[in-house]
Amino acid sequence: MPIQTVEGEISRRNFILSAAGGIVLLGAGMAGLSGCDSRTGGAATVALPELPYKENALEPYISRKTIGFHHGKHHGAYVDRTLELIKGTPLAGLSLKDIVQKTSGFADKASTFNNAAQSWNHDFYWKSLAPGGGGKPEGEMARRLDAAFGSYENFKKELTSAAMSQFGSGWAWLVVEEDRLKVVNTSNAETPIIHGQVPLLTIDVWEHAYYLDYQNLRSDYVKNVIEHLINWKFAESNLPVA
């Protein structure tokens, strides 16, 4: 069957051509030609990940409308821009984490860092939330929180303070540093993975994360995330193995 023109329906099967005694599969390469496909292609090292839940799963605390804009538009734009910036460079083909770490601190790579780091941070943020989450954890996470902060309530106060004291855009994180849990905040695209810290969970405090639902009431958004949405299973899975 001949390859159909762009007016017809293009089938991946039509792109399989024999060459030099082997078979070259061109379908995967075609994904890089489409902005949409490049963001969601299965084997891509930089791609817009599927949400780990439905868009309405975090309601009533975060609306489907907010998730749709935040994930599809904001996160998606960071992924698209990252792909544009790394195309044809030695960074192409690297993992998102490697791109972030290799561009951190270089002025001429600032745009690549910002977009790649925001892509990584957002991916981590979606996994930090879960329907029916939040509240006081159990098991190892509870023990580690008590050891680091004295109590869950003290941890809650520190995480709230980090999220609320972050001026402008940024993130609040629970991280491991030198085998001890610690709460930190970062500005804009900054991320703990460039500081030798191991992130366990994060709260996005950029306005686009909450403005449609809470307007200027960041405190209400932060409170609801901590009390109802934190994914403690994900946080525990990120604890370094001793």
State the main characteristics.
242 residues; alpha+beta; minor pseudopilin epsh fold; three-stranded antiparallel beta sheet; two-stranded antiparallel sheet; 10 helices; globular; disordered N terminus
- Structural category is alpha+beta
Tell me the name of the CATH homologous superfamily of one domain. Iron/manganese superoxide dismutase, C-terminal domain
How many β-strands, per DSSP? 5
Q: What's the helix count? A: 10
Mean pLDDT over all positions:
85
Strand arrangement within the widest β-sheet reads 4-3-5
Q: Element order, helices and strands? A: EEHHHHHHHEEEHHH
- Work out the helicity level: 40-55%
What Rg, in angstroms, do the CA atoms define? 21 Å
Report the CATH C-level class of one domain. Answer: Alpha Beta
CATH architecture of one domain: 3-Layer(bab) Sandwich
Q: Strand portion, in percent? A: 5-15%
Amino- and carboxy-terminal Cα gap: 57 Å
